[in-house]
Fold these 4 entries.
Entry 1:
Amino acid sequence: MPDLFNPTEEHAALRRMVRDFAEREVDPQAAEHDRAERFNKKLFGKLGDLGLLGITVPDRFGGSDMDATAAVIAHEELASADPGFCLAYLAHSMLFAHNLAQNGNDEQRTRLLPGACSGALIGGMCMSEPGAGTDVLALSTTARRDGDGYRLDGAKMWITNGAVDDHTLGDVFLVYARVKGAPRSALSMFIVERGMAGFSLGQKLRDKLGVRASPTAELVFEDCPIPAANRVGEEGCATLHMMRNLEIERLTLAAMSLGIARRCIEVMNRYASERRSFGQPLRAFGQIQRHLAESFAEFQAGRSYVYQVANNLTLSGTGNRVDSDGVKLYCSTMAKNVADRAIQVLGGYGYVGEYQVERLWRDAKLLEIGGGTLEAHQKNITRDLATRSHIK
Ligand SMILES: Cc1cc2nc3c(=O)[nH]c(=O)nc-3n(C[C@H](O)[C@H](O)[C@H](O)COP(=O)(O)OP(=O)(O)OC[C@H]3O[C@@H](n4cnc5c(N)ncnc54)[C@H](O)[C@@H]3O)c2cc1C
């Protein structure tokens, strides 16, 4: 029987490598960076040494040329140690590097991907705005033609890796905008780099509930000149790029939920044996058994769904929307519920930082919002099912 979660020896080796790295180097720094709301840039650079930053990028551009299942494995393993750090990884490797590898031209890929794969450049993707999130086609960032190039005006909100510290912008971004006069659905995508005139840090966002080790920022574009060479794809054709990238984004966000749930189950499972009450280990009590058993079964169901979708996802294609919405809809709430039960099983010890589950519970909530809210997934799935009379 092939192993659904590690379909090849290469996948199994990748999982062993990332799990070992996560346990040795990511886990020990997680609580401190969560408390300080600080991005660990040095540790991020080590992901480049491991070949993870360009995990799906072709090797001729410095990447590891692996598939969607490999991306899911990396996100599951990193999130089991530190979902905040993993979100910064996702924004860079999936929303920037993978997006550019799929949709950019060879000049853009040669210019930017080797640096993104090594960690010399830190990237992100700018879709959301202060006034437009779920209704993304209502975005108001505008590109005005100026000679051969463009001038960009607008603001982007909630941008992961937007700032790498309190004052410094990330290095490079893929920014969705509408060329002046284009219809609502005809978005374009531009590469914007730190140092370009008119591109600045609006604010680094603070006091997030969770994923606090990932930097989140508002970015501002004021009459920002964009050379024609920085337009990705044809003018007005980036809506398809966005939809294609959302599929791998949602799949890897679901993989983050798996990492959170698995870790919480491991913590409550151990604790239920060690902690005694009324002369017995906690696991002897039916109510505790319910927390543990339901968490395990729901995690396994979500994990099977995620890997089944990943194993069938072609990175250069589309057509997986219903299931990329489906895995995230199911796994995000599953992980939040599992983390909640873990806190309950640990009682007071679950409510403080020592066992990590309170941090994982806070981190899990982000996955019901970022990359598409639960309501957006429900809306998309219902719309897609309207054309199907049978489910394969
Ligand atoms: C920590 C963090 C990191 C992020 N990173 C990035 C990033 O790197 N790049 C990026 O572009 N974005 C990023 N985002 C933005 C994220 O994708 C958006 O927050 C998300 O898409 C929701 O948009 P919104 O916050 O504007 O909420 P809104 O769209 O205003 O929604 C508010 C509420 O209304 C509901 N709602 C809206 N429309 C409907 C409808 N038609 N039917 C039913 N309910 C509806 C929503 O589900 C939600 O409950 C990030 C967000 C966070 C919090």
Note: The mean pLDDT is 97.
Entry 2:
Amino acid sequence: MHEVEHHEHGATLLFGIGELTTNVPGVAGADDPDDPTAVVRDAAILLDGDRVAWVGREADAAAGVEAAIGRAPDRTVDVGRRAVIPGFVDSHTHLVFAGDRAAEFEARAAGRPYTAGGIRTTVTATRAASDDALRAGLARHVAEAAAQGTTTLEIKSGYGLTVADEERSVRLAREVTDEVTFLGAHVVPPELQGREDEYVDLVCGEMLAACAPAARWVDVFCETGAFTPDQARRVLTAGAAAGLGVRVHANQLGPGDGVQLAVSLGAASVDHCTYLSDDDVAALASSWTSAVPGTGTVATLLPGVELSTRQPYPDARRLLDAGVVVALASDCNPGSSYTSSMPLMVALAVQETGMTVAEAVRAATAGGAAALRRSDVGRLSPGARADLVVLDAPSRTYLAYRPGVPLVSHVWKEGRELHPSR
Ligand SMILES: [Zn+2]
């Protein structure tokens, strides 16, 4: 079990940072104007309360701290020339569930293909679980993610699929994060097989009304075996009318109209993006040139799914070269990607999807923030939330260079150091 304790708040100066990734071009001390990750070498960072108060070169820290808070910091921490990055923003997880699907995984490892239908196994277990059992699972997975450097976490419902069970899922998720997504349209529940439109009516009506108060987002699984583009449009339009932001699961298992639908509805993100046409890529790219700045549709890649289901990886290079904003997320769920490790996502993105190290780290931090339309996380500059990860490595490159090795040595969230104890 993991327990998370907190230190006292106050102003803390972290110095001795060998390589600081800020994701803020133009930040003090960043010397390469062409580097969107805006690395500062031999850096220091001042955390004051839950915010970053100053960032720059260590040599400038005394003057910087004085200018920022007018006094000495309450605490100084020498990180010993290690690399520091913004806390990971995991913008796609399904953590409200009970049971596991190890047997299905084992069968898949023996050659059976992944289909969307396995979700129903988790639905049965989740409906049967008590609130406290679901809470315990959430707490365990949230702590597990935090220990690996995740400081912002989106959590979806979608294993209840009744009004009461979906309402319970978003309510429990809301106890651990502000980024809650209503995914009643995950699959059609077993009791309504063959009555898909009847279920969509329920999702758009009574279920949405019950779930919207605790949710920030609405999502739909637009895929063969789940929901058609017309059904997905109904769900997303109803969610938007209820005040929820739009995100979509699409183009995971094959080509389809989900990406175009997401862009046409101004979705914050379309997730998976494994099978894309040239028109899909162009639509995603144009969402970033024609829209109000910061309101395009992010392509969120979930390479833990391809790892776990032996599917072809998405082509991040193609998206990045077209000018699409890309995020990386874990899709942590018991069926298709039972990992909460954002360091693993960075390693997979570099090895399997064509990203550079800088692009992958940016996608796992600033990219996730863009996918949640958040400007306060995923970056380290004055005013940002004081969420950061100290790596037990001299550079962020080690996240991909040493895959599978636990390199997250210290995590700070909202200005406090987390102390996961195992
Ligand atoms: Zn998902």
Note: The chain has two domains: 11-86+379-418, 88-371.
Entry 3:
Amino acid sequence: MKKIFIYFFAFLFICFILPALLTKWEVATSSQENENIAENQEEISEEYIYNKYGTIKLLHTDTNAVEEVALDTYLCHVVSAEMPVDFEKEALKAQAIVARTYTIYKINHKKHDNADICDDSNCCQAWISKEDRLARWDGDKEEKWKKIEDCVNETKGKIITYNNEPINAFFHSNSGGKTELPVDVWGGGSNMPYLQVVETAGEDGYTQYNSEVELSNEEIVEKLKEKYADIQIDFNNEEDIKILEYTSSGRVKTIKFGNHEISGTEARTIFGLRSTNFEIEKIDGKIKFTVTGYGHGVGMSQTGADSMAKSGSSAEDIINHFYVGIEIKDVNSI
Ligand SMILES: [Zn+2]
């Protein structure tokens, strides 16, 4: 009799209870999957939409053509032109925020009649086509491009503001340990209080930190003559080539060459030096310039940003270090 009950319950279990349990388990699993799909769809639909500045007019200086491009697509071309792709992600993200801010500043302070910005780094901001960029990279080129895209997309809409206005976000390669005031480079900048002298550790680990230029006495005179036709230097007189004044960051402010006193910035251009942070030495009919850092030194140092990122700083930390008293804001909120 007992056996009949056991068989009966086994029959019930196999025919009804087990299938019911399995169905329940399947429903639970698939609803979990649906939830994940729904989450992903939410992520996709949360695409950032710019109220303003969504597209920009880019002037290609080689063809004179003006191209209308999405802001963040344009920024991928800028970031990949301005910073080495093997730099830390947080440094590249800082560069993306800086480049976005600089672009929007340029849109509001136009240099070109029919365009917002051009592709020349000497005029506006560097830009490189994807084709040219990939051709110059080694290894997994698409993965590198994706790294750039991720850094731009992860900072979508973010810009640097001072008094709720986009800042003039200057940057350079290597500050040599200390950034520079704009007044000591271009003579202006009193309206840019966010650009101050700040110190950064670790920049000496980069190739941009140290450089030397050696010129013969004749070459020195020749180069100076292009600007100062009446130049006269007595190379035997210790006082005839002399640094007269330094800026607050320790860069050369004024230097004497014979009968002329010229600015450090001018000396940098005339002699092709990487920065105005240099020392001079007279050696056997030659002048040796020992230069520290690379670039004008104003705003964010790119190698400084990478060095900070290596020590664990975020893109926001980096920006707050190099630009004083600023706020990182969503561009749609200003
Ligand atoms: Zn331009």
Note: The longest strand covers residues 210-216.
Entry 4:
Amino acid sequence: MSVVPEENASLRQLQIFHSKLDEEKDFDKDLLRNVAFLSGEIGELVRVIQDIQKADNVEASRGLKDRLGEELADILAYIY
Ligand SMILES: [Mg+2]
């Protein structure tokens, strides 16, 4: 089983992690479908940014920034 990279992992370490994860989980390797999925994740990122811009208090904004990190991680998973 792939070991989740540490927080300050290098891009190369993340690439290796995702490559192993793809093999383990038998994820789809079709380039066109992966670009389509990446586009969906970019849309999710845009929605979070819009929500952050609309947030009217620090607490709400903090939770949204966690979501922002999750969406950026999703995008990173598709661009290695
Ligand atoms: Mg996502």
Note: The two ends are 19 Å apart (CA to CA).
